[in-house]
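Entry:
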Amino acid sequence: MSEPRNKSLLHWEPFAYILLVVLVVLAGSLDPQGAPVAFWIAAVFAAAATVFFLIAFVSYGRRSRLNPDPSGNLRSLADITIVPANHVPAETNPTVTVVDAGRHQSAIDIVRSRGGEKVRAVLVPRASRWLSRRYRIGVQLVAAGEIRHAGFLPDAVDERWRDRLGALRDDDSYVEVPAVIIGSQQPFSVDLDVSGLPTALGE
């Protein structure tokens, strides 16, 4: 089964807010005397949107306590299964550089201070940037009990591994690969050793 590329509108965090605002503004712009039918129709939809907003708000609060949360951030490794993808010697050393690491320098710095340059990275499918509908494979750095989001896999790598990693996620399993934090101070970059991914994923 192929992985979804985007969140559905119903699960996209801003959708309930946008729908509520649009319908309330629409209802407020209509004259109940001049266009009573249109006004009451808009008012009913605005009321329904309010109910939907409240349900979505409560639902998001519940989902934010899941592991991983709706953005793909891990809270703990205790209740998930880690599938190690250790380095496999080869003539070439396939590594990929984490994208969007520039947005997460403080998080990377914290992990580096705990675990040094060589740490581990858990790959989390169905992760996303804040307010984005697009699903990506998130990279969570792990060291000495710290778990921090460092960015995402590049698009080409995401495309190759998305479906297999997503199938593992359905079983609460996530692949862990070796990672190296490059740099002695900010800005850091993060390289992942993906040489063991084919073996870990049964290819």
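The two ends are 17 Å apart (CA to CA).
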